Structures are given as structure tokens and as C-alpha cells.
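Researcher: Structure prediction, please.
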Amino acid sequence: MICSVGIDLHQGRHRARCLDDRAQPCDSFNFQTTPEGLDTLEERVFQDGANPIIVLEPAGLPWLMVAVYLRSSHPDCRLVKAKTQKVAALRRYLRGPVKSDRIDALTLAKMPFIDPEQLDEIYLPPADVHALQRLNRQRKRLESDISGRKIRISAIVDGYLPGVRRAFNDVWSSPVRAFLRSRLNPFAVVRDGEEALHAFLSKATLWGKWGRAETRLVFLACQSVASVCELSRPAGTVSEEFFQDLQDEIARELRLMEAEEAESESLAHRIAELYQKLHPSDNLRTIPGVGEHTAPVFLAAVGDPARFPNQSAFANWEGVVPGARQSSNVEAKGLRMTKAGPSIMRMALYQAGDVGRRWDPQLAAVYYREMVCHGKNHRQAMGAVMSHLGARVLAVLKEDRPYELRELDGKPISRDDAKRLILSEYHVPEDIRRERRRRNRKIGNPVGAHSKDRETATYRTNEAAKAPQPVQVVPASRK
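Model: Predicted structure follows.
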């Protein structure tokens, strides 16, 4: 009887290898994600009442429709996913440098016999949660593209028109965008005069009043650029005609950026609708630091909180726990995060945690202890904050009740009192921040340590790691 099935998925034909209870190959076939192909899968795998473990490697999207079909047709069938690194390592062990679809499928089928602890059940979220996940990822991509275009436009303008963009107070306000769209030729700006520039910028201002002092700064910057270009005219590289082509390039980038901004705004409305439907209590946003952007990310990424039996399992899933390197009596400390979970979840935890530590005394105490007492830098301290914040997110979703600000001893505290407590007791001095920005000294380099880990890790014996560590003296008022 078939006990394990490994399916190597592709855009076209999928390869399946079946193993019996002795981990010996008993069947092999190809199929497609079509009614006929799925019928073949039914006949070859679920024959004679068999209910094997199906092992998939969820790379790309071809796995989703196969997994959805198997889950709906065979609810008791155990669908598990294998980690890519584990599969690659096992394939190298079994077949060396040789790689093929047949070998990949066989490797997946052997995973339940070799390393069953590393196989996680495939979670298939409901339709609305799945849609929210995809919309969050799409908004993240759009925001990344918008940020990239802003960087590109800034680099071009600062390179060819030095000082012009800095003459504006808000570098992405409506007058600045109007200027970049049609007034990038400094020769034309100088010819038209300061009054014409002031009238143009005033008309482009959507709210408030445009001041003459601001116009003056922009006009002087254009004069400076025009003078430099005039002096450099003999080189023949930069001319008035060149600025016309540069104007078209920047205007095109602006149109693309504003189209992406409009799409991002439209996505935000749809995300808000789904979030309200799935989480009407909105208890997530009662956690300090969790706002309208990060709350839908947490809700979609977690999905069903009951699938995490405890906080440790959740922390391992989200990937904010440090790696481990130990050999004999030597143990590495300060290693990088495992980053095992979705990157969008970690980004949201970082953003929310950086705000939350300024309002939640318990998070502020964690950050203060890591920075001041344990000698960590900002990012290392934020790793601890992210872990604690993730535990709060899971608890709020599981219990579906509002989050309450509390002191370290558990007593409730108001928002204003919490802010005063943080400023008085858990404010990290600037001199300590400066010191932590410097690269920590490395102690030793054990054999086999990854080069990236060596940059931040320190190595001590197990006895030294367990012994009390020297800490910086903390003023009595902060103890």
C-alpha cells in the first residue's frame, strides 16, 4: 500500500513518485492539473483505500490548485510541505550533483521517512483571507515601486539640477510635482522671470498659500544651474535641448508613479473592506504601533490563529528567533534571525514594533534592556521587540479582545501615563545609541560559521554563556 507520495510540481506536467511502507518505490507517473490528470492522480494514489502522506514543495503557484483539490476531495489526507533547503540537501545526499524531476519527486516522497519533524501541514486559508494576503503583497510591491521611482527621480534631478529640489520645503508636494512635470529647463525658467515662476507655483498649490520667499529660493537655484550649464556649454554635453529630453523622462516617471499611487490607494480601500469583514472588532489596532497598514497584514498572514498551539510555534513560524550554532562546549550568540516565515509579516512587525516601543511600557522595557544592559544595537534590540509584539498579535487574535496597556508588574496604565513612564524610565541615552552603532568586536571564528553570521556573532563557552554577564550600571531611578 502507498504510504508516501512526492509530487514535483511544474507549470505543465507534474511528476509523482509513490513509496510503500518500507520506503521503496512502488509507482511513478505524470499528471496535469486538468480533470483527466486529477482522475489519474486519484486512480494511482488513492487505490484500495490508501490515504498516504502527500509531500509538496510550495514553490510558485502550481501547488495551490493541486493542494486545494486534494484537500476538498480527501479531507483526511495529510498534505505537508517540505522546506526547499532540506529537500536540496537530501537530494545532494541521495544523488549527488544529479538533478531531475524524477529524483526531485523521489526526494520529496522520502522526507516523511527521513525528517518528519520538518514537515509542516499545508494551511489553505478561506477565500477572503487568501484574497487579503494577495492584496497585501500587491500593495507592498506597488509601494516598493513607488519608492524606487522617487529615488530615481530624486537622483536625476539632484544630479542635473543641483540645489533645485532642496529649494522646496516638501519635495513631493503638488507645486514640486508640477515643477518637475513642466519646468525642468532652467534656461526657460530664467528667461520667463521670477514673476512667471511665482504665478505657476501658486496655481499648482492645492492648499495654503505659496510664498514669494519660496519662489525666490527656487528661482535662484535655477539661475545657478543655468549659469553652470552656460559655463559648461563648450563641452557640448549639457544644452537647452538636453533639458527638454530630460523633462520628458521625468514627466514619464511621474506619470507612472502617480498611476501606481492611484492603484495603491484603490487597493487600500479594498483591503480595508476585507479587513472590516474578517475582523469587525478591530482589536488588532488596539495594540500600540499596529495601524491601518500593518493590521491587515497580521490578519492575513496569521489566518487561523488556532493552527499555532503555542507562542513558541508561532515565533518559529514568523522567523524572528535567532539561529543556533553549538559545538562541544562552544556556543555562538548574536546570530541572525532564521527568517523562516513570510517577509511581509516580519516587515510589519518591525514597523509596528518601532512605533509600539514608544507607547507600550513592556515593549519599551524590552528594548531598553537589550540596548543598555545587553549591549545590543538597534536592530538586534528590535528583534526582541518583534518577538514580544508577535506574541501580542497572536493573543489578541486568539482571544479576540482589546489589548490593554500595562506596567511591568501587570497593573493597567493609561496611554499618557505610559508615555511619561517610558520617557522617564526607559529612554535610551543618545551616547549609548552612538556606541551601539559601531560594529561589535568579534571574539573568535569557529569552523563552519557562515560569513554573514560571523559579522555579528560572538562566541563563548557554554559555561561562560550561562554565567552572569556584566551589564552597564543603570541609574537608581531606572531600576
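Model: The chain has three domains: 4-121, 132-268, 284-478.
Researcher: Thanks, that helps.
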